[in-house]
Amino acid sequence: MNRWVGKVAVVTGASAGIGAALCEKLVKEGLQVIGFARRAEPIEELSKKLRGQKGKLYALRVGVSNPDEIVTAFQWVKDNLGPTHILINNAGIAINTSLSDGDYDKWKQILDVNVLGLSVATREAVKQMKENKIDGHIVHLNSVYGHTIVKKQFNMYFASKYAVTALAETLINEINEEKLKIKVTVSAT
């Protein structure tokens, strides 16, 4: 972790659970961490708790289903803290719906957060890494359901997690083609 001390990390879905725990760990390791979430207040509270640590936590209200908010947030990061070195795509939602009688709005909600939001955040982070010749790291927190299906409910969630797996693999191909020094990790939770 020493190579990342003082560097900038973005964590989506940072207001609770795994996202909040990741923010806390990265701050304690000395990174400048920006937590994106629909609710900034829990991140602000965690930031207060982490005062005096080696790094610092910043809270930005960002709905990852809104591409404009993601782009604006990454610009804020660049303008205020410098370019992104690490992106952890943690935000995700699971809604019980099926394909045979499911609700379009629920399907869209899942895909907007789990696939399109992840894609926009990845694009913006890679853009900053390329512009600044950063040896960065993109992490997609995925699910074991990106590799297996267990029941008919949550089918769009499963599809979204399979998409995350495919997106990571194609991103690796893109990075290798361009000979960039950006690492891509997919971690199943």
A few lines on this structure:
The chain has 189 residues and is α/β, with parallel strands linked by helices. 46% of the residues lie in helices and 17% in strands. It has a 6-stranded parallel sheet with strand order 3-2-1-4-5-6, with helices on both faces.
Structural Rg:
16 Å
Low-confidence stretches: none
Indicate the CATH class: Alpha Beta
Number of helices: 5
Strand order of the largest sheet: 3-2-1-4-5-6
Structural class of the helix and strand makeup?
alpha/beta
The CATH architecture can be given as 3-Layer(aba) Sandwich
Helix content: 40-55%
Order of helices and strands: EHEHEHEHEHE
Number of domains: 1
By CATH, the topology is Rossmann fold
| Annotated CATH homologous superfamily | NAD(P)-binding Rossmann-like Domain
- Indicate the overall shape: globular
Average pLDDT:
94
The total count of strands amounts to 6
Distance between the termini: 21 Å
- Major sheet description: 6 strands, parallel
Give the DSSP E fraction (strand runs of 2 or more residues).
Answer: 15-25%
Task: Please tell me about this protein's structure.
The structure is a single chain. The chain is of the alpha/beta class. It has 5 helices and 6 strands; from the N terminus they run βαβαβαβαβαβ. The protein has helices at residues 17-28, 41-49, 67-80, 104-131, 155-177; strands at residues 8-12, 32-37, 56-61, 86-89, 137-142, 183-188. Strands 3-2-1-4-5-6 form a 6-stranded parallel sheet, sandwiched between helices. α3 (67-80) runs parallel beside α4 and α4 runs parallel beside α5 (155-177).
